[in-house]
Amino acid sequence: MSEMIVKENKMGVRPVKRLIISMSLPMMISMLVQALYNIVDSVFVSRMGESALTAVTVAFPMQSLMIAVSSGTGVGINAMLSTSLGAKDFEKTDAAANKGVFLAFCSYIAFLLLGLFAAEPFIATQSQTPEVIAYGTSYLKIVTILSVGLFFQMTFERLLQSTGLTFYSMITQTVGAVINIILDPIMIFGLLGVPAMGVAGAAYATVIGQSAAAILALLFNLKVNREIHFSLDRILKSDATTIGRIYAVGIPSILMMSIMSVMSFFMNKILKGFSETAVAVYGVYFRLQSFFFMPVFGMNNGIIPVLAYNYGAKKRERIDEALRFGVVLAVCIMTVGTIIFEVFPDRLLDIFNADDNMRSIGVTALRIIAIHYPFAAVAISLGTVFQAFSKSIYSLIISVCRQLLILLPVAWAIAYFTGDVNKVWFSFLAAEGMSCVLSVIFFRIVYAQTVEPIGKKTR
Q1: Are residues 49 and 354 in contact, defined by beta-carbon separation less than 8 angstroms?
Q2: What band does 13 get if pLDDT is binned at 50, 70 and 90?
Q3: Torsion angle of alpha carbons 417, 422, 425, 427, nearest 10°?
Q4: For 255-298, what is each residue's pLDDT tens digit?
Q5: Which end of the chain is more exposed for a tag (fewer CB within 10 A), N or C?
Q6: Rounded to an integer, what distance in angstroms lies between the CA atom of residue 271 and that of residue 421?
Q7: Contact at 8 Å (CB) between 276 and 127?
Q8: In this structure, is residue 3 part of a structural domain?
Q9: What phi and psi values does residue 274 have, to the nearest 5 degrees?
Q10: Each residue of 275-296: b (16+ CB within 10 Å) or e?
């Protein structure tokens, strides 16, 4: 019992900055590795030609949707589990963990069916080039039909993160990413006696890495995580109350992240009106920007359980300190990203075997879009409050405004009225400016409703 108390009190007694660093750094490192393998994946695919790179880009919205469902459900599990730990309600803690496993399996079945019946029509709506459709369909079928590893990896890693075991989460994500990176060239180009599978090889490398990470994360939860207890009866037991609590936070988060999938789909269609090279540039940008956004998201994943725990424990000063530290650190990371994109855009594009045409579009795109990164950092870091305090509806509103009401209409209007692809990228600046303003407004509302009533307490 004493071991349980020490572990449960970790997020309530350790110095806040040191706690955030210890919890966030492993996830930031693992997110960096994740971003690296996304880039490496595309680098190898780009060696097959622009059509292969474009195919992976048009498959991305569906992949993004899978990540949205798995990650958004994980946010709901995380919020319920961490708050229950802070309030010392261990029955709810176990309920959240077990139903999370059940929901992961249900999500996999849904995307298995989508992969079987909707992959080719989905790709065909974004490209009429036969080679792109063939590559994209093959890739998308594999990553959806075999996505069981993705859903269980996300769930088991969230359980580790929610209970403060972020180091083990880092290990699982890193192992999955490294396996993917190693298998990419082997399966794409046919090395070491393995047949060359092209774009399909990249997909198989991805799902193998995800499955390995899922198995390892499960083992860590079974062997190391003393805060939660699994049982088949609990996983299968009908528990609408727990599912409702998970999805009260999870559904807004799923919708919020799904909006990116919708946005990517329609941006591909807008850019296709100029050329498929423009679509490929957009895909390259998305992979490059993840190298800076993913660590910030990793930091947020470390801060959310700290906020939720201390909210449950009624410790306002620790919440305030965590928020201040998170905003400053996020802005610093994203400012570095802006500088790199402004100074070295041509070098970044060369990584993806860019020809002169891609470089002429891509250099301008990277420099324009990267201007908004510091503003994005503020919006993202303030968003931890919405997730930690079960106010994800505000994150959903911000995402709808940013990506559907601002970004896409502005991008379409610029494309329609100017016919200049280089000007389309300014739509990102307009969208992020609005996102930052709304984030500050909603943060002040949520803070006044949830944190201020707690009252100041000593650390």
Answers
A1: no
A2: low
A3: -20
A4: 878 888 899 999 999 999 999 899 999 999 988 998 888 888 88
A5: N
A6: 7
A7: yes
A8: no
A9: -90, -55
A10: bbbbbbbbbbbbbbbbbbbbbb
And the tokens for 152?
A: 């269980």
Whole-angstrom distance, CA of residue 386 vs CA of residue 383: 5
Residue 58 falls within a domain, yes or no?
yes
- CB neighbour list of residue 203: distance below 8 Å, 6 or more residues apart: 138, 139, 140, 142, 143
- Residue identified by tokens 């992959």 is 119
- Is residue 97 over pLDDT 50? yes
Please, are residues 324 and 385 in contact by the beta-carbon 8 Å criterion?
Answer: no
For the chain, the farthest-separated pair of C-alpha atoms sits apart, in whole angstroms, at 67
CA distances from 151 to 90, 113, 296 (A): 24, 15, 22
User: Are the C-beta atoms of residues 70 and 150 closer than 8 Å to each other?
Assistant: yes
Residue 2 resides in a domain: no
Would the CA dihedral through 24, 27, 33, 37 be positive or negative? negative
pTM, entire model: 0.80
Q: How far is CA 209 from CA 214, 258, 410, in A?
A: 9, 23, 38
Q: What is the DSSP letter of 196?
A: P
**Degrees, nearest 5: CA angle 181-186-189:** 115
What amino acid occupies position 368? I
- Domain extent, residue 406, equals 13-454
Quote the pLDDT of residue 3. Answer: 43
Torsion of CA 353, 358, 364, 366, to 10 degrees: -40
Of 110, 14, 13, the closest CA to residue 66 belongs to 110
* Structural tokens at position 35: 């971003």
Structure tokens at 53: 């790179």
Range 8-15, long-range pairs (CB < 8 A, 24+ positions): 8/85, 8/88, 8/227, 10/164, 11/82, 11/85, 11/86, 11/164, 11/305, 11/306, 11/309, 11/310, 12/86, 12/309, 12/310, 12/313, 12/315, 12/318
pLDDT higher than threshold 70 for residue 6: no
Give SS3 for 147.
coil
DSSP state of 290: H
For residue 284, CA distances in Å to 60, 93, 164, 281, 374 come to 11, 40, 34, 5, 20
Count the domains in the chain. 1
Q: Print burial letters for 6-27: b (CB count within 10 Å at least 16), e (below 16).
A: ebbbbbbebebeebbbbbbbbb
Angle (nearest 5°) at CA 66 between 143 and 153: 80
